[in-house]
Specification:
It is a single chain. The chain has 11 helices and no strands. It is mostly helical. The protein has one domain (about 5-85, about 100-220). Helix 6 runs parallel beside helix 8 (about 190-220). Pfam families: XK-related.
């Protein structure tokens, strides 16, 4: 089971990237330059995860080479590490800058459990960040195209569906990681991961559909509704006094960014029981 998670993650990442490229070509061929430009622009936020990946390489003592920079420029930094030597068991730092999906699979084949867990943790965090910054905006855009512009559009529909599934699985992978990090906890069975995937997919799908339908009916008023929700979530996160970020300015920025994520889904960032926080989240979000 531990090797199935990175394999499925890599498969969904490849399918999502291929469908996104097909959507870009689809708009370009049909002369829909507006949707072509917006779809291409959704790629830009994903470079934040690529930049963080490069910084983690430097933190681990690996000097970024030309092909490392080329991989990250092509947004392939999560696929393969760029250090010239193979990772050795126990060499990964707490940042895990040398860890990517192929390295996770290699560690699963021949490395120890500690090395695998460290590498899986790093790549799950990077993938979740990329999914929230890149996949989610792409999902919203393609869903709006399918609902409001071109209901018969096959390629935008497939791209939206794969983006939804990939985003949901990124959240499930993060939940799977948090379970593995807890002392004494084993890898959840496949049935649990499937239930989590169905829950995340349904939750994200209904929220995206609601926002798209609201945008179709009321146009730019959707930004006012989303803005109010974002402010409520940001203040609520600030009231919880999360200590995941130490510096005050970065702590405020973190709460603001996570507040935007909370428009669509709940991510637990504090240790301990979360039933009360989840109840508050759903009470405000519904």
């Amino acid at each position: 089971m531990r090797g199935a998670v990175p394999r499925l993650s890599l498969t969904l990442l490849a399918a999502e990237s291929g469908a996104r490229l097909c959507a870009i070509i689809h708009y370009l061929v049909r002369g829909q330059l507006g949707w072509f430009g917006l779809t291409t622009a959704c790629l830009v936020p994903g470079y934040a995860a690529q930049l963080l990946s490069i910084l983690w390489f430097r933190a681990d003592g690996h000097t970024p080479g030309c092909w490392l920079l080329a991989l990250h420029l092509l947004q392939l930094g999560l696929w393969k590490r760029a250090a010239p030597d193979f990772p050795k068991p126990g060499c990964a730092s707490r940042h895990g800058g040398s860890c990517r999906y192929w390295d996770v699979l290699r560690a699963e084949a021949g490395g120890g459990a500690g090395e695998l867990l460290a590498q899986l943790g790093d790549v799950c965090v990077l993938r979740l960040l990329e999914a929230l910054l890149q996949t989610l905006p792409h999902l919203l855009l393609q869903a709006y195209v399918v609902v409001a512009v071109d209901p018969a559009g096959f390629i935008p529909g497939v791209s939206a569906g794969l983006s939804l599934l990939s985003l949901a699985w990124a959240l499930v992978s993060y939940s799977h990681l948090t379970c593995l990090l807890k002392p004494g906890h084993l890898s959840p069975p496949a049935a649990v991961l499937l239930c989590l995937l169905l829950w995340r997919t349904g939750m994200l799908g209904t929220r995206v559909l609601a926002l798209v339908l609201f945008a179709r009916l009321y146009s730019f008023w959707v930004f006012a509704v989303a803005g109010v929700h974002w402010l409520l979530m940001s203040f609520w996160l600030g009231a919880q006094q999360t200590d995941i970020v130490a510096q005050p300015c970065r702590w405020r920025l973190f709460n603001c960014l996570l507040g935007a994520v909370y428009i669509f889904c709940y991510i637990n960032v504090r240790p301990g029981p979360s039933k009360t926080r989840v109840a508050v989240f759903y009470a405000v979000s519904t």
